[in-house]
Amino acid sequence: MKRSNQVHYSMGEATTKDEKRGLAAVEKLKNSGCDNVIFHLLDVTDPASVDSLVHFVSSQFGKLDILVNNAGIGGFNMEGDNFVGIVEGGLPDNWYKMLTQTYELAEKCIQTNYYGNKRMCEALIPLLQLSDSPRIVNASSSMGKLKNITNEWAKGVLSDWMSICPGYVKTDLNHNNGVLTVEEGAESLVWLVLLPKGGPSKCVFLIENDTSLSLYL
To answer: Are 57 and 124 in contact (CB under 8 A)?
Structure first.
């Protein structure tokens, strides 16, 4: 992604499972006035796919200003009706009984949420270093808060990253039963991405009560 009037927009497997869906998203953006949008198919779990994106960005733009890691999956299955109940009544004490978990789902979750993020950062940092004001932003969920990590060393290392939880957004992950629309969820990401140079760089932003933005240093 570039801070100029041209934006490089890529969607991974976790956000669109086929090229048709990605192109439809680009068309929607263009209809809203974003003329300079380019789609590039990306699967963050596939090193060859990531390499293809890196080559494309390098050859077309020569550098990268902003990387937003937004790919993510839950690592479990849950019926849509259960998501509706959580939205209406809150998270019950026995919420874990509503989940269906398998080894394959857990492995895919780790490959996407951890290794996919890591792979994208390692592959694109050389291009980011060519920018005058590079930025990496990681979109996560409240389940990924550092307080859930017991290892103090890991907490210290991970605190160096800028992360944001955009709130409970309507996505495929929750069968579109979230509170916020995709557009509303994206507002906080755009705000963070466009912070001026010299702004906060080691912090976590969480959307609270679906409206307010809180900063955790």
So the answer is: yes
Q: Between 181 and 97, where is the model more confident?
A: 181
The continuous run of DSSP H or E covering 26 comes out as helix 19-31
Question: Structure pTM?
Answer: 0.67
d(CA 80, CA 176): 8
The 10 Å CB-count burial string (b at 16+, else e) for 78-90 is beeebbebbeeee
Q: What is the mean pLDDT of residues 190-204?
A: 67
pLDDT tens digits for 86-134? 555 555 566 666 677 788 988 988 899 889 999 999 999 999 999 988 8
**Among 155, 67, 76, CA closest to 117:** 67
Instruction: Name all domains of the chain by residue range, CATH numbers in brackets.
Output: 7-216 (3.40.50.720)
DSSP string, 85-152: HHHHH---TTGGGG-B--HHHHHHHHIIIIIIHHHHHHHHHHHHTTSSS-EEEEE--GGG-GGG---H
The average confidence (pLDDT) of the chain is 71
What is the rounded CA–CA span in Å between residue 20 and residue 11?
Answer: 11
In this structure, which amino acid lies at residue 113?
N
